[in-house]
Amino acid sequence: xxxxxxxxxxxxxxxxxxxxxxxxxxxxxxxxxxxxxxxxxxxxxxxxxxxxxxxxxxxxxxxxxxxxxxxxxxxxxxxxxxxxxxxxxxxxxxxxxxxxxxxxxxxxxxxxxxxxxxxxxxxxxxxxxxxxxxxxxxxxxxxxxxxxxxxxxxxxxxxxxxxxxxxxxxxxxxxxxxxxxxxxxxxxxxxxxxxxxxxxxxxxxxxxxxxxxxxxxxxxxxxxxxxxxxxxxxxxxxxxxxxxxxxxxxxxxxxxxxxxxxxxxxxx
Length: 268
Ligand SMILES: Nc1ncnc2c1ncn2[C@@H]1O[C@H](COP(=O)(O)O)[C@@H](OP(=O)(O)O)[C@H]1O
Ligand SMILES: [Mg+2]
Description:
Elements: H1 3-27, E1 33-34, E2 40-41, H2 43-59, E3 65-67, H3 75-78, E4 83-91, H4 93-97, E5 104-111, E6 114-122, E7 127-132, E8 136-141, E9 144-147, E10 158-162, H5 168-176, E11 181-185, H6 189-195, E12 201-204, H7 210-222, E13 226-229, E14 234-235, E15 249-252, H8 260-264
Parallel strand pairs: 3-4, 10-11
Antiparallel strand pairs: 1-2, 4-5, 5-6, 6-7, 7-8, 8-9, 12-15, 13-14, 13-15
Helix pairs in contact: 1-2, 6-7
The protein binds adenosine-3'-5'-diphosphate and magnesium ion.
GO biological process, one term: 3'-phosphoadenosine 5'-phosphosulfate metabolic process
Function: Converts adenosine-3',5'-bisphosphate (PAP) to AMP.
Membrane topology: Peripheral membrane protein
């Protein structure tokens, strides 16, 4: 199936998963438990996971799935995958619980270790960002599609940072960084802000998992950004090791600009 059709199907699945999340969000009828890594879990995460897993299996039964809520798959098994769905059914669970709208549904297709298709859907904002290699990238709101393009680095760049996970390394980086404006957003929306040309750098100093970045990386890259692991400055890749935690990385909207000093000063 060409990515054009697969992308529309993935968008439809993410949107429908978002409806299920919003029904629980509006009702306020959910309980919060904590997983082994102490991250919160609600009925909304699980309802979205079950819906997405069923629908992706119907859409493309030959493509395996790695979801945050079904991630216990041995590396010896997944290292044989040449392509797979990488899903975070509800990214920004902390925001969801606090009734902050910065949470997203994330569906990525990883091929040979890199994202080739990505859908980020923010159900409480009513906005989706979609991208696929060879197809294009768009922001969708109220049925209106706008092509995404990162911007040239401005005089006063905007740095977009985490809302719920700010660590001393980030504070240290920001205090030493050249003049900038800092904006904080939850979940994978940080990648989308860069893709829209509303922000210029996303420094990720705290750990996040591969499902937190796959779809957002595709959206940002297709819009012209680079997602670079640090300090190596090579493209962030997937399914390369037993751990599913990403290395330190940064997203830059304008790769033609000089980011040398800034990237060198981002530490874990
Ligand atoms: N120490 C850690 N290890 C792995 N993932 C972490 C983490 N700290 C935060 N995250 C994940 O990062 C995501 C939030 O990112 P941000 O801080 O940019 O909003 C959350 O995803 P979920 O909400 O899907 O659990 C959270 O679980
Ligand atoms: Mg997540």
